[in-house]
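thought: user wants a sequence for this fold. calling inverse folding tool.
action: design(structure=
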């Protein structure tokens, strides 16, 4: 059996970052920048008011309260500005350019709000409530570096420096195919021997959560030819493919049967629990990575977290490796098969403890749904007493 680390190492040695594309701004959420982005102008581009109030010379407020004539009204977006001479003031709104001559803004709350003349009650320092040009970004300054993951705030600054398109690695497109003759789409009735298909829903959602674009291709039965056909269609639009089921030792293992003869996909036993049977390789001229995950629902979910998620990180041009762990104290005893690394399902608490959920079978999807953590038990450990320190992956 190969170790979890060996299996992941092979995956990460095979999977490559996706080629960068010119993406429209609206398409960039979750993409990874592939260029340094600079601002063509300073931000803010001009001195502007931080408050609704009056632009004035600070010197004119020395004897406050003072009453001054209001010579103009400046809204945000105004371009035609009158200079503010000594003893004058203009009414100004937040975001409006500060007219020449004025050196501070007095908020309307410090005044009587007059529009012809205004009485200002308090003095203000030079620069008060003025947002200076270039205070956020200088012209030519790099605002985001290549390799940055684009979230809402990053998307905001891209727009803020006037970009319509940027060079970025897109979110990987991942097609998910469930296999098994017993599978029925949720919403349809079951007969004896059938179960509702759930893995493709879990895995597609997991892809999306991991920053990919997940597509469900629908389940196929136990016929390897049907699977090959479905894969052909998937490869047209996929940067990676995930299958679930059909990889263990049974008489009908369509994934193994369909892919083994190709010679580009290997089936291995990985020393872990759950998730022991694993297939991985590449398909087609474009060498699209395929993850053939075991069918047990908890097994496919855990396999995704350990192997597919890091591969998606690599495709996105992000640092990739096993999920980070935190240390916690287990509230209950743990058991693990000798020679296999276990990923038991648990609930983390704020007090630094983790409680194993009831139902640790790799078919127990309801127990998985209660968990928010995977408790890692190393290969050489078979029993962990309650109260012990353990490493935990947050889900
Ligand atoms: N003789 C052996 N039998 C098994 C071994 C073994 O080493 N020797 N390994 C076991 C382990 S461990 C696992 S994990 C499973 C993996 O089996 P497959 O990947 O071939 O998956 P299936 O047989 O198709 O299904 C397993 C189980 O999961 C249910 N399933 C499958 N797909 C879905 C789905 N999309 N949604 C919901 N549930 C699904 C399926 O009905 C089976 O109950 O093999 C063990 N056997
Ligand atoms: O290794 Mo299997 O994945 O236990 O159910």
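)
observation: tool returned 395 residues.
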């Amino acid at each position: 059996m190969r170790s979890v680390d060996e299996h992941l190492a092979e995956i990460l040695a095979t999977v490559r970052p996706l080629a960068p594309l010119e993406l429209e701004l609206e398409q960039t959420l979750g993409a990874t920048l592939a260029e340094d982005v600079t601002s063509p102008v300073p931000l803010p581009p001009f001195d502007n008011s931080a408050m609704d109030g009056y632009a004035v010379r600070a010197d004119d407020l020395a004897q406050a309260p003072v009453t001054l004539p209001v010579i103009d009204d400046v809204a945000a977006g105004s371009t035609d500005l009158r200079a503010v001479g000594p003893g004058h003031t203009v009414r100004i709104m937040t975001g409006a350019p500060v007219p020449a001559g004025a050196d501070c803004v007095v908020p309307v709350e410090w005044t009587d709000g007059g529009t012809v003349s205004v009485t200002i009650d308090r003095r203000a320092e030079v620069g008060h409530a003025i947002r200076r040009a270039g205070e956020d970004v200088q012209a030519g300054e790099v605002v985001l570096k290549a390799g940055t993951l684009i979230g809402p705030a990053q998307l905001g600054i891209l727009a803020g420096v006037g970009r319509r398109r940027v060079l970025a690695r897109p979110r990987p497109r991942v097609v998910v195919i469930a296999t098994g003759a017993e599978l029925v789409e949720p919403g349809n009735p079951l007969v004896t021997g059938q179960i509702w298909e759930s893995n493709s829903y879990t895995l597609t959602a997991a892809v999306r959560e991991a920053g990919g674009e997940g597509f469900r291709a629908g389940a196929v039965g136990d016929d390897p030819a049907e699977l090959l056909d479905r894969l052909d269609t998937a490869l047209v639009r996929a940067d990676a493919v995930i299958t679930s089921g059909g990889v263990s030792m049974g008489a009908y293992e369509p994934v193994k049967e369909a892919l083994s003869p190709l010679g580009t996909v290997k089936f291995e036993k990985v020393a872990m629990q759950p998730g022991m049977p694993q297939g991985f390789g590449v398909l087609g001229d474009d060498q699209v990575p395929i993850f053939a995950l075991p069918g047990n629902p908890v097994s496919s979910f855990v396999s995704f977290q350990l192997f597919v998620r890091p591969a998606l990180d690599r495709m996105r041009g992000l640092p990739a490796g096993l999920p980070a762990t935190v240390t916690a104290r287990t509230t209950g005893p743990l058991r693990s098969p000798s020679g296999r690394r276990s990923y038991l399902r648990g609930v983390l608490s704020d007090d630094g403890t983790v409680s194993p959920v009831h139902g640790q079978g790799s078919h127990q999807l309801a127990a998985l749904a209660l968990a928010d953590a995977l408790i890692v038990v190393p290969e050489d450990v078979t029993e962990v007493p309650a109260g012990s320190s353990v490493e935990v992956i947050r889900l």
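thought: summarizing for user.
answer: Here is the designed sequence. The domain at 48-131 is CATH 2.170.190.11 (Molybdopterin biosynthesis moeA protein; domain 3).
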